[in-house]
Amino acid sequence: MPGLPAPRRTVLKGAALAGAAGLGLAACSTESKLGHAENPTPTAPVDLGAADAIPVGGAKLYREQRLVVSCPAEGVYKAFSAQCTHAGCLLEKLEGTVGDCPCHGSRFDVTTGQAVQGPATVPLPEVPVRADGGKLVAGPSA
Question: What percent of the chain has pLDDT over 70?
């Protein structure tokens, strides 16, 4: 019958679902430049091993150290945090020089740090890196 009010229980369920949906949207917000990443860059030097483990034109994901390093030219290295700037998840894998975040599908060019697919819009933070005696060291100078 039109004109009859909805039962109270139906109204309360609808209000609860709307509130939960709002929380879900807030959790996936891109307002924060670093999402939920607490400390996306190293605060001390990190030994990454042999520099020649990264081929020229390639990149390597160091999941344990939360870093990704590329080698655009012989003896030249660029490093970035491997924590997605959307929600702080760790990049899962590299496809060439594109890093994939498993949480929400963001993708990053690991040679520049730029987000190439959202929801992330903020680039990965750059991390200083240098070759020292054939080894890569990332983070602040010792």
Answer: 71
